[in-house]
Structures are given as C-alpha cells and as structure tokens.
Automatic annotation (TrEMBL):
Belongs to the Fmt family. Residues 1-177 form the Formyl transferase N-terminal domain. Residues 201-298 form the Formyl transferase C-terminal domain. It catalyses: L-methionyl-tRNA(fMet) + (6R)-10-formyltetrahydrofolate = N-formyl-L-methionyl-tRNA(fMet) + (6S)-5,6,7,8-tetrahydrofolate + H(+). This is Methionyl-tRNA formyltransferase. Its EC number is 2.1.2.9. Keywords: Protein biosynthesis, Transferase. The gene is fmt.
Length: 301
C-alpha cells in the first residue's frame, strides 16, 4: 500500500521505522512545524523530521493541516493515511482522502484523547496496550482493527513506556496494513459507553501535592517524566522531580514537611499516608542529579 505518514514524536519514529522495513511504500511524512527551543529559542525540528530526511523521505509541515494540507495530500494519491502521535486534529475532508488509520497508545475505548500513555502511569495501571483503528471525526472513536496488551513494569516512566509502545505500535501497524491489503481485516465498533478520556498534560498540573498518597505521587512523577516534569516548590524555587519512591513513616509532621535532607538518608518528605523519597531532582539553573548528591553540597531546609 502507498502510505502518507503523519507523526511528530519519538513514538512516531518507531512506527515509521516499522513501515520502512515492510513491503508498504511511504510516499511522504507530515509532521508539526519546527518550534523554538532552549534558552536561545532556536527553531528546532521535530525528531521525526530529522529521521525522515535521513531516510530520503519528503517531509511536509503544515501550520494547520485542515487548511494548508488538503490539496497536497490529495495530490500524493495515497491508499492510506497513517497517523501516530501527529498532534493536530484532522478534518473530515482529510479523513476522506484515503483510508485513515491511527496507532493509539491505549486499549480503546479506555483512554481516548491526548495523553493515554502518561495517564496509564499516573493512574498506576499495570497493563496498557496498542490499538490500531480506522479513524473517525470524533476523537479516537473509530472501529478497532487490532489490539495487543503490554505490561507496565514498576520501573517504567513515560520515556521507557513510550519506547516500548512505539515498537509494539509499529509491529501492529504493519500487521493491520497487511490484513487490509489482503482483504482480511475486521473493523469492530467501539463500545462508547465504556470510553474514558485523557487531557493534555500541563506544567500547571505537574505540581506535586504532598496531601496525596505516596503511591499517587510516585505515579505522577512517572507519568510526567521529562515533559512537562513533576515538581514542587521549596522556598520559592521550582524543584523538578525525575524519580521518587514510596517510604513508610509514622511521623506526625504535617504533609509537605521535610523528614530528612542529607546525603546519607536522602530527601524524604511527609505525605498523606507516609512519605516520599525524592530520588532524582533538578534545582533551578542546576544539573539533574540524585538528591543525595545534591544534598552533599547544599542544604535543604
């Protein structure tokens, strides 16, 4: 089949790699425009743009695909549009260009929306999966073609789980396209009554609430890993948290109070049902490091 691939993130790259190693032909890649990044606000290309160009693929970047991209996509005359973490909502006019297939990071109808992989971690799920579906105009509501489960390990965070899901998504995508080409694919409607929805993760929502349980705090750190990164405020400064662990504690200190802050015991903070050890952190204008290493040279009152 002739494919136009729409994707932007590292998750998308894994799916595109699987396509390039299959019998299907990738006509072009569509991704989000370059965005300012870093202290100098230098325009930075999405990861998949670099990967696509290195593999000799034509790349299109539309500010609004439903406005700028319709005629271009039609001119390519694809058999299917494959979408994997693209980042823009597609209009019905675009969905009608060719068979629209989506690689979604959950076992639909659970976790429709913008952050299915992160939400599974935040909720403490032990299992997730990939769904390959035919797209419909209503977000993530289309008929299911294939699904496969994936175990979430306690050590997983958003980065590691995205990597695993990308590999699984690529494998299932190729399998689904093969079935479609052979006329053997089945399209199963979703049970909309079972649908749950996820929201875009925000910097405001990334703040840790020490009135919550230690399990929920640890899961939040896992789900918000790197982007936008969980944090708490200490003496007016934002302390980013990349790793945390639950600790039992019977102290009667108020939630949010520091139980220990030294290079031997680490940084341990009281929460609703015990305590949380902040394992890895980053202070403003500082490097990412273990809390024990940070406390070896600085005080944390």
């Amino acid at each position: 089949m002739k494919i136009v691939f729409l994707g932007t993130s590292y998750f998308s790259i894994a799916c595109l790699k699987a396509l390039l190693n299959s019998k299907h032909e990738v006509l072009a890649v569509v991704c989000q425009p370059d965005k300012p990044s870093g202290r100098g606000n230098k325009l930075t290309a999405p990861p998949i743009k670099t990967f696509a160009e290195e593999n000799g693929l034509k790349v299109y970047q539309f500010n609004k695909i439903r406005v700028d991209g319709v005629e271009t996509l039609k001119s390519l005359k694809p058999d299917a549009l494959v979408v994997a973490a693209y980042g823009q909502i597609l209009s019905q006019e675009i969905l009608d260009i060719a068979l629209p297939i989506n690689v979604h990071g959950s076992l639909l109808p659970k976790y429709r929306g913008a952050s299915p992989i992160q939400t599974a971690l935040i909720n403490g799920d032990t299992e997730t999966g990939i769904t390959i579906m035919k797209m419909a105009f209503e977000v993530d509501s289309g008929d299911i073609i294939l699904q496969e489960k994936l175990k979430i390990e306690p050590s997983d965070n958003a980065e590691t789980l995205f990597e695993k899901m990308g590999v699984l998504g690529g494998k299932l995508l190729v399998k689904a396209l093969d079935l479609i080409e052979e006329g053997k694919a089945t399209f199963t409607p979703q049970d909309n009554s079972q649908a749950t929805f996820t929201k875009m993760l925000t910097k405001e929502g990334a703040e840790i609430d020490f009135n919550d349980t230690s399990e929920n705090i640890v899961n939040k750190v896992r789900g918000y890993y790197k982007n936008p990164t969980a944090y708490f405020i200490h003496n007016g400064e934002k302390i980013k948290v990349f790793s945390a662990e639950s600790r039992k504690n019977l102290t009667k200190l108020l939630n949010g109070h520091i139980i220990s802050a030294n290079s031997k015991e680490g940084l341990i903070i009281k929460c609703l049902n015990g305590a949380v050890e902040i394992v890895e952190l980053q202070a403003p204008n500082g490097k990412r490091m273990t809390a024990k290493a940070y406390l070896n040279g600085k005080k944390f009152e």
